[in-house]
């Protein structure tokens, strides 16, 4: 009898000819995510993965629940295909379920069997009935409820017999790496980590860019961004983080351009630098955490002015979300507590008193021409610090 974990994957079923590719990427992502758990083996089976040599570190379930592409998973017992072993494992499963429910009181259950090995002597129905009757004898006080049971003991007869009672939701989405690469503009705030998570969930690999305004922003604020990246790597694998010095650009804009356009101009510079890094990284799109109307620089007019700075598409997955919804997601993905640490961000340093909410593109371009953008951008990119963030 062996403890294994059964992983189910989803949407990649839909991918027709690409399916073997998607499966290979997913398997490799699972293996990488579980690297820290020594001896673990990932085995591909029909429409499933099995994890063998699970060990006894309970954090493995947390780790698995973050892997994009997995719909759900179950800690399972694997036994040989004979009735004695199956009965014994069914007892263990039910006992585990009873402990999880906090006791046997009024517990209802059913057994649900599936048989992909048709040479097994009992049909699925017969197997469920036999095991159900066995459990009723062993655990006086429980009852069968086939319609609405508190516990379902699942039995799958394949090359081995697998039994489980828990089905834990996975992260869903698609395996990271199957949908290209994007550059995430990552501030230390609440929104951009959530934006990166949402796009990565659709199978996109992330490179992150953070603008740092030393000495106005401290090393702690940089550490905070590295920590946010590290949390994201739990979902999407290693992230290369570019920390780009932004102080000179901000000072130049502050000295030479109209105050009310400062945030917008900063945003345009961020986009342009993001685009250069994206090309270097062979990424085709940018991601930001902007949400419509949240602040002056996120009105429809402001977003158009920002988009004009680059020729790449800019993905804004939070565009239609309320702040409360974004906060809920940030909590769910575990970035919230880090995001609210009170270190200053570069955007809070040179803030215009009366930012434009309906900027005109021609005026913004005129203002931008007052600084030597090309030189400033080249200098910033050349001095970027590159940090490889792994879990
Ligand atoms: P966030 O919570 O992500 O900081 P926000 O609501 O505070 O978002 P802004 O500060 O206006 O919004 O920034 C809008 C977007 O611009 C951010 O979501 C992020 O993608 C990008 N951005 C802002 N500041 C930085 C920065 N210092 N480094 C990298 N990207 C940034
Ligand atoms: Mg911000």
Structural summary, described in words:
With 391 residues, the protein is an alpha/beta fold. It has two domains: 2-169, VC0802-like, CATH 3.30.2130.30; 181-389, 3-Layer(aba) Sandwich (Rossmann fold), CATH 3.40.50.620. Helices cover 39% and strands 21% of the residues. It is built from 13 helices and 15 strands. Helix 5 (191-201) links the parallel strand 10 and strand 11. Helix 3 (83-101) packs across helix 4 (124-138), helix 5 packs parallel to helix 6 and helix 8 packs across helix 9. The radius of gyration is 27 Å and the shape is elongated. It starts with a strand and ends with a strand. Bound molecules: adenosine-5'-triphosphate and magnesium ion (MG).
What structural class do you assign from the helix and strand content?
alpha/beta
Q: Shape, please?
A: elongated
Average per-residue pLDDT, rounded, comes to 93
Look at the structure and give the CATH class of the largest domain.
Answer: Alpha Beta
Strand percent estimate: 15-25%
Number of helices: 13
Main sheet properties: 9 strands, mixed
Radius of gyration, CA atoms, in whole angstroms? 27 Å
Present as ligands are: adenosine-5'-triphosphate, magnesium ion
Give me the CATH superfamily of the largest domain.
HUPs
Would you tell me which CATH topology of the largest domain applies? Rossmann fold
Gross CATH architecture of the largest domain: 3-Layer(aba) Sandwich
First-last Cα distance: 33 Å
What is the chain-wise order of helices and strands? Answer: EHEEHEHEHEEEEEHEHEHHEHEHHHHE
Q: How many individual β-strands?
A: 15
Bin the helical content.
25-40%
Which residues sit in consecutive blocks of at least 5 with pLDDT less than 50? none
């Amino acid at each position: 009898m062996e403890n294994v974990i059964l992983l189910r994957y989803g949407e990649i079923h839909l991918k027709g000819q690409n399916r073997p590719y998607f499966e290979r990427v997913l398997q490799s992502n699972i293996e990488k995510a579980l690297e820290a758990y020594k001896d673990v083996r990932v085995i591909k089976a029909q429409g499933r993965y099995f994890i063998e040599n699970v060990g006894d570190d309970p954090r493995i379930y947390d780790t698995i629940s973050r892997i994009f592409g997995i719909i759900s998973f179950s800690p399972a017992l694997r036994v040989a295909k004979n009735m004695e072993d199956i009965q014994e494992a069914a007892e263990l499963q039910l006992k585990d379920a009873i402990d999880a429910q906090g006791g046997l009181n009024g517990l209802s259950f059913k057994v649900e069997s599936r048989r992909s090995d048709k040479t097994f002597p009992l049909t699925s129905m017969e197997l469920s009935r036999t095991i159900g009757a066995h459990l009723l004898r062993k655990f006086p006080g429980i009852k069968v409820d086939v319609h609405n049971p508190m516990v379902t003991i699942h039995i799958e007869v394949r090359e081995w017999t697998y039994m489980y009672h828990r089905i834990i939701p996975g992260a869903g989405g698609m395996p990271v790496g199957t949908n290209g690469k994007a550059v995430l503009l990552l501030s230390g705030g609440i929104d951009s980590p959530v934006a990166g998570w949402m796009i990565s969930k659709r199978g996109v690999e992330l490179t992150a860019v953070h603008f740092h305004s030393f000495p106005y922003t401290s090393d702690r604020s940089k550490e905070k961004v590295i920590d946010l990246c590290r949390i994201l790597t739990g979902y999407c694998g290693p992230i290369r983080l570019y920390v780009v010095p932004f102080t000179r650009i901000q000072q130049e804009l502050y000295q030479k351009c109209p105050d009310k356009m400062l945030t917008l101009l900063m945003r345009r510079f961020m986009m342009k630098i993001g685009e250069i890094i994206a090309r270097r990284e062979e990424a085709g799109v940018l991601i930001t955490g902007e949400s419509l109307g949240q602040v002056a620089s996120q009105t429809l007019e402001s977003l158009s002015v920002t988009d004009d700075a680059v020729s790449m598409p800019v993905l804004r997955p939070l565009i239609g979300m309320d702040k409360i919804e974004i906060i809920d997601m940030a909590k769910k993905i575990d970035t919230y507590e880090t995001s609210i640490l009170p270190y200053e961000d570069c955007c809070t340093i040179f803030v215009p008193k009366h930012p434009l909410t309906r900027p005109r593109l021609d005026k913004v371009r005129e203002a931008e021409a007052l600084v030597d953008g090309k030189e400033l951008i080249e200098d910033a990119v050349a001095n970027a610090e590159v940090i490889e963030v792994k879990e």
